[in-house]
From TrEMBL, chains A, B:
Residues 33-52 bind DNA. Keywords: DNA-binding, Transcription, Transcription regulation. It comes from Nonomuraea helvata. Residues 10-70 form the HTH tetR-type domain. This is TetR/AcrR family transcriptional regulator. Gene3D superfamilies: Tetracycline Repressor, domain 2 (1.10.357.10). Signal peptide: none annotated. PANTHER family: HTH-TYPE TRANSCRIPTIONAL REGULATOR BETI, HTH-TYPE TRANSCRIPTIONAL REGULATOR RUTR. InterPro entries: Homeodomain-like_sf (IPR009057), HTH-type_TetR-like_transc_reg (IPR050109), HTH_TetR (IPR001647), Tet_transcr_reg_TetR-rel_C_sf (IPR036271). Transmembrane segments: none annotated.
Length: 198, 198
């Protein structure tokens, strides 16, 4: 049973995480201070280190939270799909939904941090990329792939396209139509791997 | 005519740029100091700000240099190709060559900086992405594209795949086969857009 005190603590934690996720995505990790997080969350500045230790601890917790959201988005097992084509539509629908999450913007922004040498979130990022590739690979393995083309390599290319489309859009939202590019990716994959689809 | 003094100055500048490009790619921009650059280049620490003003100025100059290398890599005009298929092979060959350049690793590492709010290199990155997309788009416009699919949107997806493949590889070189993934991308594009190729 949750005590009143624990419940309040959990609520504060969630308010801090929501505020930090928004600020990291908007201002970047380095530019965000505990004072910013306190102001946006309405939780006192002093209780942030009590919940998360350091700013790095807060970053890791924000990343865990966004990883949970990504996992939920991928929760449907591709093996359960009715057929390869239905599986393809579901895969692409969930990719579309994933990219529409605000947490995905944060995820791409924090990649910046993950690539820095000695980054505390490097390991988590490797894990997230593995999860995404694995999900894509399992779907691809159910298709009759052209000879010489592995599901593993295709998964890297497809997940890569998702990441790279998103980054071009983040860099220049006025010049890049993310939605159209995701549809183009879908058409490339369908055209190459499901030629009898039409 | 170049005086002896100017020539030496140009040589020092190039040595500094080479050293900085290597260090930025290995250690990251923020972790690299003028002292590191001086040590690797063999040029005195004091002359670095004389050439580039600030560390930001050095970063911009390194980026300009890598932009020149990318432009040279794309120099062959896609319009000059003999046919769409020959054009495709040349496009993909130049993409492969581009990704093999050490400067590309630097380019991806510095994207980190470009995405930070208020970054001094943001504008240059927008320009580089535009150049890459434009090159790809011009090639795509020569193909009979499936209805409803624009060259612009496909260019974002294809350039995005190149960027995203590279980043997955940078994050976890032991888990991602960049070369195989680039071949898979090539197969996706050929399979979807050049169906009569085989």
């Amino acid at each position: 049973m949750t005590t009143r005190r624990e419940q309040t603590s959990g609520e504060s934690r969630e308010l801090i995480l929501q505020a930090a996720a928004g600020l990291f995505a908007e201002k970047g990790y380095r530019q965000t201070t505990f004072a910013d997080v306190a102001e946006r969350s309405g939780i006192s500045r002093g209780s942030i280190p009590w919940h998360f230790g350091s700013k790095e601890g807060l970053l890791l917790a924000v990343l865990e939270r966004s990883l949970d959201m990504i996992r939920t988005g991928l929760a449907e097992d591709p093996d359960a799909a009715q057929g390869a084509e239905a599986g393809f539509d579901r895969l692409m629908d969930s990719a579309h939904a994933l990219f529409a999450l605000p947490t995905t913007k944060l995820f791409v922004t924090l990649l910046v941090e993950a690539l820095e040498p000695g980054s505390p979130i490097h390991g988590r990022y490797v894990e997230i990329h593995d999860t995404l590739r694995e999900h894509c690979r399992r779907w691809l393995e159910r298709l009759p792939l052209p000879p010489g083309l592995s599901a593993e390599a295709l998964a890297v290319a497809i997940i890569g396209a998702g990441i790279g489309i998103h980054q071009q859009w983040l860099l220049a939202p006025g010049r890049v139509d993310r939605e159209q590019a995701l549809w183009a990716l879908r058409a490339l994959v369908a055209g190459a791997l499901l030629p009898d689809r039409e």
